[in-house]
Write a structure and sequence with these properties.
3-stranded mixed beta sheet, 8 helices, alpha/beta, 7 strands
Length: about 240
């Protein structure tokens, strides 16, 4: 699923221009530098790119897991069903991955007739479910949706927060009333934030990816240089 495992580009060890970033990671590149001395990439973006480089070098994914993420995966079909019921839709889970020269992504749902996409965010509990749109807004998610809009040529993309029952094995010692929510009317359990397409922001994404590729390549080259057998022998 898009965004569950952080992305390394193992086919691109040398940082060739073909390296592509997943839509789920775009937001981590888009933070602006605090000063011109940082260059086109912020400190946070560079830190993230170094994480990708480390995954590439050692051939592992830095997989982060939590009960909330497990629920998101396990209950995705329930959330899709809830959205379809509330909105009068009949959308099915997308299984196609698309790519362009810069980014790659596999969206949750896409309605070809309306040129509108839908991303599913399954809330952990009532306590984490956003009840107003302003609580949904998030820069990381915004740029993830902008990536999908570019790939699917969509006019807008929705972020749909859905509140469904949590599997028993995940609830732990939290109060049951926070997790078992089927008694709540369905229309009260979906909150939607819509992101509209912006071609200037898309162009900015592609520009950031270009800089990210160059930095990724530089990090790999530095590691190879400083960790070669010859360099280690010199240090000894």
């Amino acid at each position: 699923r898009e965004g569950q495992a952080e992305e390394g580009n193992r086919t691109n060890r040398n940082g060739r221009p073909s390296m592509k970033f997943r839509c789920s990671s775009i937001g981590r590149l888009m933070t602006e530098p605090r000063s011109k001395s940082e260059g086109p990439l912020s400190v946070g973006a560079k830190t993230y790119i170094r994480e990708l480089a480390a995954q590439e070098i050692f051939g592992v994914d830095f997989v982060v897991s939590s009960k909330a993420m497990e629920k998101g995966i396990e209950c995705e079909s329930d959330s899709i069903a809830l959205l379809n019921t509330v909105r009068g839709l009949s959308l099915e889970k997308n299984t196609e991955r698309k790519s362009n020269d810069f980014i790659t992504g596999e969206c949750d749902l896409f309605d070809e007739q309306t040129r509108r996409g839908h991303d599913i965010k399954t809330s952990w509990s009532i306590a984490t479910f956003p009840i107003v749109v302003s609580d949904c807004e998030d820069k990381l998610y915004e740029f993830q949706m902008r990536g999908y809009m570019a790939l699917w040529d969509a006019d807008e993309w929705e972020v749909n927060y859905c509140l469904v029952d949590t599997p028993d094995r995940l609830t732990g010692f939290e109060p049951m009333e926070l997790h078992f929510v089927s008694n709540i009317p369905e229309h009260m359990r979906v909150t939607t934030w819509t992101v509209k397409r912006d071609m200037e922001k898309e162009a900015a994404i592609f520009e950031k990816v270009k800089h990210a590729r160059e930095y990724f390549k530089a990090v790999i080259q530095e590691f190879d240089q400083t960790h070669s057998n010859n360099e280690l022998r010199k240090a000894a």
